[in-house]
Amino acid sequence: MKKLIGILIVILTFTVNIHAQKSELVVYMKKGKYGFVNEKGKVVIKNIYNYAEPFSEGYAVVELDLKYGYIDENGDVKIPLENYDAGKFSEFAMVRMINPDTNVYGDSFTICGIIDKNDELLGGKWFSSIERIEVDSFRVYVKDVEYTLDRTGQLTLIGNKVKYVVEEMPEFIGGEMALLEFIKKNIRYPVSARKNAVQGKTYISFVVSETGTIEEITVAKSASPVLDKEAMRV
Predict the structure, then answer these.
(1) Angstrom distance (rounded) from CA 125 to CA 145
(2) Whole-number percent of the chain with pLDDT over 90
(3) What pLDDT, on the 0 to 100 scale, is given for residue 195?
């Protein structure tokens, strides 16, 4: 299938999630810091984090000093805050780190991995990009080489990835003005970024398929992790 390539600049992640286990703890914020309270409003985990997401399968994503990791419902750090970005858990979660070697992984600013709750990489490898294709499998790339990765960690070579640049580039429904209006209505500047006066431009690259769906969303040029995360969400 031919695909169209597009690039979006947003001024200012991918979640591996099937069925999330519901937690009784909810996120709260006080004085710009995040923590967790129970359903009665009693503080269970103090507000010490710059960012936090709701619990999923007993783990919550938290951020300090622009590094992401996971805590449990007792507030204990289960996966160290060492990642550039992190997604919610189901059986697995997707994490990102800054690309350490463009010769190995290509020009993407970040690379991706899928971890279990023991912080073990599925397949034992980092990848240039990851796509979910089935409930039990992923399409993964190292530069332009494509593989499939199943939930057991089995990696199967598919071949070289092929993209097409076409004469008529994809366009947002309604045109550029409609796109800008969509971004304006949907973007939420992160609280921690406002508090710390973090600003800049995040460059996001992606592929538009023939059906108009957005795939292979990656950070081409970073402003900061919190801004990158919001740009990818939008």
Answers:
(1) 14
(2) 45
(3) 67
Cβ atoms within 10 Å, residue 40: 6
Of residues 207 and 138, more confidently modeled: 138
DSSP β-ladder status, 60-64 and 51-52: antiparallel
Phi and psi at 191, nearest 5°, equal -60, -45
Q: What is the pLDDT of residues 61-89, one digit of tens each?
A: 999 988 999 999 999 999 999 999 999 99
Confirm if 61 and 68 have CB atoms less than 8 A apart: yes
Lowest mean pLDDT among 23-37, 132-146, 182-196: 182-196
The alpha carbon of residue 57 and the mean position of all alpha carbons in its chain are separated, in whole angstroms, by 18
pTM of the model: 0.67
Among 1, 10, 4, smallest CA distance to 224 is for 10
- Tell me how far apart the alpha carbons of residues 132 and 155 are, in angstroms, rounded to a whole number: 14
Q: How far apart are CA 192 and CA 65, in angstroms?
A: 10
